[in-house]
Write a structure and sequence with these properties.
The chain has 386 residues and is of the alpha/beta class. Helix content is 43%, strand content 15%. The chain has 14 helices and 13 strands. A 7-stranded mixed sheet has the order 2-8-7-6-5-3-4, sandwiched between helices. Strands 9-10-13-12 form a 4-stranded antiparallel sheet. Strand 3, helix 6 and strand 4 form a beta-alpha-beta unit. Helix 3 packs antiparallel against helix 11 and helix 5 packs across helix 10. The mean pLDDT is 95. It binds pyridoxal-5'-phosphate. Pyridoxal-5'-phosphate binds next to helix 5. The site of pyridoxal-5'-phosphate (PLP) has 13 residues, from helix 5.
Length: 386
């Protein structure tokens, strides 16, 4: 007789993002629910990966990743993030930013520890922490500008608090943390001796001249930060599973060993593909990424406005939270289904990103879509405006 699944196994529920993707597929709609980019990947990245496969790079790699990729990441950390890091000892390549976050939490936190997240939060951060037995304490970001209050940070801390997570640019609200805000977080973390775990996967997706500031580049944060990022979004290779973290050597060693235990390594030839992309793509690649996404952001925000779904204009990332309080439905889910049925466009109910009931009045739309598909989605959304 087979055993029952574990308590953890039984507690796992289908994410609202996947739910909405299924609802969308069942109706043949346009899926703006999932953060999957359908624009092409850079040629250099594909060619270098194919070459590596052709040359037989088929084995496990070093548990911290191929040194070629770690060197490329360290170079990019210096040039773009203003962070000096040693590729031999302080960089760990993992199975996407998701793998890096999981291994960082496994390495640095214990069951029962408390971790602060800003709300709205990225569901994987919340669920990873919960799954590992940690308690999440939330600090509100207030729409439409998504500012936080230092007093609320103080309220969220307890004797068991060990870390704070900063996602910048943020999924789902597109907030880009300013230097002043990071300084506030730095002082707070120093006062309570907290680890700062960052998620910077959208670091190149920035609008209106907003600049990405890596928290680790602030001297007052450097010693207590673990920087996490990856290339799923920047190179449109979400299925390749290449991400990384940067941390001081003693931490990086342990994170690397847990990465070995859980994933063994990220796919070897794909590591070389990403390394080639980092080394060979010029600044123009990143500036045209920014320009094309700025156009997509403006397009969807205008359409949401015309549809009567007031958008909170994102400063970065490729999502927008829209106010759906005027749409029929008792819950965010009902509102999202209502929009899907009327327009054939799927978004994610805010309850996936908020504990607070305010989440029921938001829907997140992803605008990482090809121009024709996004244009069609926008045309359909505008039908809501009559
Ligand atoms: N972090 C954030 C904030 C995300 O939004 C996503 C994907 O949606 C990820 C991490 C996943 O990154 P990866 O594909 O590198 O695991």
């Amino acid at each position: 007789m087979p055993q029952n699944p574990s308590r953890l196994g039984r507690s796992i529920i289908q994410s609202e993002i996947r739910n909405m993707s299924l609802e969308c597929a069942a109706r043949g709609g346009i899926n703006l629910a999932q953060g999957v980019c359908d624009t092409p990947m850079p040629r250099q990245v594909a060619e270098a990966a194919c070459l590596a496969i052709g040359e037989g790079l088929n084995s496990y790699t070093h548990y911290k990743g191929l040194i070629e990729l770690r060197q490329s990441i360290a170079g990019k950390m210096r040039r773009y993030n203003n962070v000096i890091t040693d590729p031999e000892t302080e960089v760990v390549v993992s199975a996407g930013a998701t793998g890096a976050f999981y291994c960082a939490c496994l390495s640095m936190l214990n069951k029962g520890d408390e971790v602060i997240l800003f709300e709205p939060y990225y569901g994987y951060h919340f669920n990873t922490l919960k799954t590992l037995g940690m308690t999440v304490s939330l600090v509100t970001l207030r729409p439409p500008g998504w500012e936080f209050s230092p007093a609320e940070l103080e309220k969220a801390v307890s004797a068991r608090t060990r870390a704070i997570v900063v996602c910048t640019p943020s999924n789902p609200c597109g907030k880009v943390f300013t230097r002043a805000e990071l300084k506030t977080i730095a002082e707070f973390a120093a006062a309570h001796d907290l680890l700062i775990i960052t998620d910077e996967i959208y670091e190149y997706f920035l609008y209106d001249n907003n600049a990405h500031i890596s928290p680790m580049s602030l001297p007052e944060i450097a010693g207590r930060a673990i920087t996490i990022s990856g290339y799923s979004k920047t190179f449109n290779v979400t299925g390749w599973r290449i991400g990384y973290c940067v941390a001081q050597r003693t931490w990086a060693d342990i994170i690397g060993q847990l990465n070995d235990l859980v994933y063994v390594c990220a796919p070897a030839p794909l590591q070389l593909g990403v390394a080639a992309g980092i080394d060979e793509l010029k600044d123009s690649y990143y500036s045209s990424l920014r320009e094309s996404y700025q156009k997509k952001r403006d397009l969807i925000c205008n359409s949401l406005q015309n549809a009567g779904l007031k958008p909170c204009i994102p400063q970065g990332s490729y999502y927008v939270l829209a106010d759906v309080s005027g749409i029929k439905g008792r819950t965010g889910k009902e509102k999202a289904i209502n929009i899907l049925e009327k327009t054939g466009v799927a978004g994610v109910p805010g309850s996936a990103f908020f504990r607070h009931k305010i989440g029921e009045n938001f829907i997140r739309f992803c605008f990482a879509k090809s121009d024709p598909e996004l244009t069609e989605a926008c045309r359909r959304l505008e039908k809501l405006g009559g």
